[in-house]
Amino acid sequence: MPEPTTTRTITIDPITRLEGHGKIDIFLDDAGVVERAYFQVPELRGFEKFAQGRPAEDMPQITSRICGVCPTAHHMAATKALDDLYKVTPAPAGRKIRELVYSTFMVEDHSLHFYFLGGPDFVVGPTAPAAERNVLGVIAKVGVDVGKKVIAMRRRLRELTSLAAGKAGHPVFGLPGGVAKRLTAADQERFKTVAAEAVEFAQFTLQVFDDIVLKNSDYVNLILADFFTHRTYYMGLVDAQNQVNFYDGMLRVVAPEGQEAVKFAPNKYLDYIAERVEPWSYMKFCYLKTPGWQGFTDGAESGVYSVAPLARLNVADRMATPLAQQAYQKYVATLGKPVHHTLANHWARVIELLYAAERMQELANDPEIIDPNVRTLPTAKPTEGVGVVEAPRGTLIHHYQTDERGIITKANLIVATQNNAARIAMSVEKAAKGLISGKQVNEGLLNMVEMAFRAYDPCLGCATHSLPGSMPLSVRVRGRNGVTLSTLDRDADGKIRRA
Amino acid sequence: MAARVRVLGLGNEILADDALGILAARELARLFPPAEVEVIESSQSGLHLLDYVTGVDRLVVIDTVQTSRAAPGEILVVREEDVRSAPGTAAHGTGLFDALALARQLGFPVPDDVVILAVEAADCLTLGGPMHPAVAAALPQVVAKARALIRNPR
Fold first, then answer.
1. Strand pairing of A23-28 and A34-40?
2. Of chain A's two ends, which shows fewer C-beta atoms within 10 Å, N or C?
3. Which candidate, A72, A78, A81, A64, places its Cα nearest to that of A99?
């Protein structure tokens, strides 16, 4: 009688350097070959119940507290949901101020991500010792002056957000039909000055990416590696000319071959997107109703799609601003289109950083931005509203139904990471299968598996500020009966201990 | 001149036990005049904490943790040097320690005395959820400990 096959489990918990907790389970068979790999994240619960019974008008203020990373994205999606709920078109200056603030936020978030979250993988390098792959390693590589430049830029951007939107960490300016506060001529001058600095900073960052990543063939080969590649659908907001837009537009989906699959108004999202649950995860996995769910697989027959910088550049025909368009052309000339390489998200993010800065500059220089008429008062009776923005990490959807007094009766929230969840699961599994074979699983290989995950910059739940409570990395090898056979812990200083 | 002390209450009012750091900060703001102790509440994370870790002599941080190795409501006192060997590899990545390490590396004025009151939480993921009774019950003790730490620098 043949021996029963035993499966060993490797658990990476939590994933380092992400905003929040995450856990990866890798199941090995006896030969040390990866059978399956799962990623697990704790997800926020109870949004619907939380929202029910509240006045919809409170949602922009409250939902900006949902996430400690992108309060501005939640605030803006909620505010836009109120526009739709009250069927009001925002006053032109109000709309422009919103997009100006939103662009400012995107410049800030994308810069922080490039240097400090993605930086350890790409600026310091995927094969650098674990102890160097952190914020300090990034500074050591780019220099203290560049570090200071990033922090100073961030501070100026946040001062502007506070000026226009209330506290940068808790914006309060969005109201149905516009914004609460106009910009003065003096405010406009400040925005103009900082926007010009932001464009320069973004160009500088693109140069850093070029020098450190693109001029290093090892990094380029890693971006192109098969185990970081999936041929899925992509989704993102585009403007009337099919250009990337973070604040508004139509949701466009392109197929793995690059042609448009569908383009729809955001409030029709339920006609095109469905969610499913898997027994091994709390996470809801989004997929396209056409072609439907075929499992964790890519190709035109599978409804798996993704969002975020890579997806946004794939769904757009071009960038709306000149310098970003130049950068985009180089990107497409190098990688083709659509780009299916997950790690190209880092490059796409820098191109978007440049677009956000240029868009900020366009809006700061728009004479209408100081028009005192910043709000159109809503008069319609509320029933239902959907608000969509492109958060830094991808499409974010807020959806409220209310009674005639505007009290929420039903609410739905789809965050970027849910849109990406199926593809992230595929990335983790493919990287694990591509990289791990044989019984020797070293820390470097595990980092490469984590890199597949980190490229999406997933928001993992939103209780993100909690202090570290356990070892940065622990790997458990278990038999099928659940008995731990051995453990592998990566200490905080990067040293590995085996037991 | 007395040392400048800042209390940083981290958490999220709308996420069950995660409200603890915020509630403790509010309580402390009532106990000390602003000129004596600066109290900041923040729901922000990662390097956004950079704004709050510089320019003071002493920093007392109150936050929730989920180690799953302690009972809900248990209070852990952690000094920064306990984890200082680990800049940047903290579990939550760009957390408080990264913000401190980065600020230090860039030459910003960072307090030498950083103490963290970490309270074990049961649930930090349910929007609008209730606090675990043991976590809620820990609040007076957290405030008392923070008060003692503020009054008695080591």
1. antiparallel
2. N
3. A72
Domain span at residue B11? 5-151
Residue indicated by tokens 């609040």: B139
Residue of B14, B63, B86 with shortest CB distance to A465? B63
Residues 6+ apart with CB under 8 A from A54: A62, A407, A408
Q: What is the pTM of this model?
A: 0.90
| CA–CA–CA angle A327, A330, A334 (5° rounding) | 140
Question: What is the total count of domains within chain B?
Answer: 1
Domain boundaries defined on chain A:
8-41+431-498
Instruction: Identify the weakest region by mean pLDDT among A472-476, B121-125, B138-142.
Output: A472-476
Angle in degrees, 0-180, between the axes of helices A185-209 and A322-335, rounded to the nearest 10: 20
Query: What ipTM describes this predicted complex?
Result: 0.87
Contact B125 A44 (CB under 8 A): yes
Q: Tens digit of pLDDT for each residue in A308-346? A: 999 999 999 999 999 999 999 999 999 999 999 999 999
Rg of chain B over all Cα atoms, to the nearest angstrom: 15
Closest CA of chain A from B138, distance in Å: 17
Read off the pLDDT of residues A87-122 as tens digits, 9 standing for 90 and up: 999 999 999 999 999 999 999 999 988 998 788 888
Edge to edge, the sheet with strand A8-12 lists: A34-40, A23-28, A8-12, A473-478, A484-490, A496-498
